[in-house]
Amino acid sequence: MASNTMVLLCPPNVTRHTKPLFSLHKTTTSTLHPIPCFSSYSSSSTRRSISLSAATSRGAMEALIFDCDGVILESEDLHRQAYNLAFAHFNVCCPPFSEPLNWDTHFYDVLQNQIGGGKPKMRWYFKENGWPSSTIFLTPPENDIDREKLIDTLQDWKTDKYKDIIKSGSVEPRPGVLRLMDEAKASGKKLAVCSAATKSSVVLCLENLIGIERFQSLDCFLAGDDVKEKKPDPCIYITASKKLGISEKACLVVEDSVIGLQAATKAGMSCVITYTSSTENQDFTDAIAKFPDLSDVRLKDLEELLQNVVAT
To answer: Whole-angstrom Cα distance, residue 222 to residue 133?
Structure first.
């Protein structure tokens, strides 16, 4: 598959790179095939019943799993703002610059779509650009313990600031999400949320955006704190499958980025994409469908998509 390599440009006040850092691929939209019709059956009514039952069970959706950031809410720029507030608060300056680090919109769009989780983002960035001075450590930390303390302190402060933004009441869930959750629960499907973000920030988002009652009715909730490896590693979805007691093939994941898509497919799960403005040009070839949002998507649509995948 042909690919276009993009050089990740740093904001004006950080070190610029002279080599490509990430590869981004243009989106390829897959044509969805019609749901197959079972038109020929055995003359025996017993065999017909068994055949239909087996076909249905093989493609039946038993669990619907949502990512949080980008799926339940458009959160990318909210996280970016919170990181920049943390960098300014602790005067985080990467050499050779004397001004606090500031991630601009374009840079963060690329970064957050390639590296899952806040701590891994900062850890990668500082390894690439040099560990910074700050009010936490006046000189750049030189050992792993101090570096992890820097990362932990920044992440904790950033998370608190992000919570303040969510609590402000200015953030709403993306279209169709609440309806789909309700449809899934009403039909007896298992419902889960799997996010690479910290547990405290995800809990706050869910309680404020989907409501405490829906949050408490989830059959499984996993955050970045609950697994050893972040997306695109499949660990979080494999863990969810085990907690739900449901085969990976019977789970359908809703994601917004190629990182989440890779995590789901590596776990053996089918995935639909509801993309955002910052992810719409990613390569979603491995998704079974993609949508700009979920406003016109019903549970039966997702069930048919999964059945179609199994049948083909």
So the answer is: 34
- What is the DSSP code string of the chain? ---EEE--PPPTTSPPPSS--EEE----PPPPPPPPP-----SSHHHHHHHHHHHHHHH---EEEE-SBTTTB--HHHHHHHHHHHHHHTT-B-TT--SPP---HHHHHHHHHHS-SHHHHHHHHHHHH-PPB-SS-SS---SHHHHHHHHHHHHHHHHHHHHHHHHTT---PPTTHHHHHHHHHHTT-EEEEE-SS-HHHHHHHHHHHT-HHHHHT-SEEE-GGGSSS-TTSTHHHHHHHHHHT--GGGEEEEESSHHHHHHHHHTT-EEEEE--TTTTTS--TTSSEEES-STT--HHHHHHHHHHHHH-
The answer on pLDDT for 221 being more than 50 is yes
For range 76-94, the mean pLDDT: 95
pLDDT band, residue 57 (cuts 50/70/90): low
pLDDT, one tens digit per residue, over 260-311 is 999 999 999 999 999 998 899 999 999 999 999 999 999 999 999 999 987 7
Instruction: Indicate the pairing of strand 251-255 with strand 220-222.
Output: unpaired
Rounded CA-CA distance 172/212 in Å is 15
Known catalytic residues are 67, 69
Confidence of residue 112 (pLDDT cuts 50, 70, 90): confident
Q: Average model confidence (pLDDT) for the chain? A: 84
- pTM comes to 0.69
- Rounded to whole angstroms, the Cα distance separating 295 from 204 reads 24
Angle between helices 258-266 and 235-244 (to 10 degrees): 50
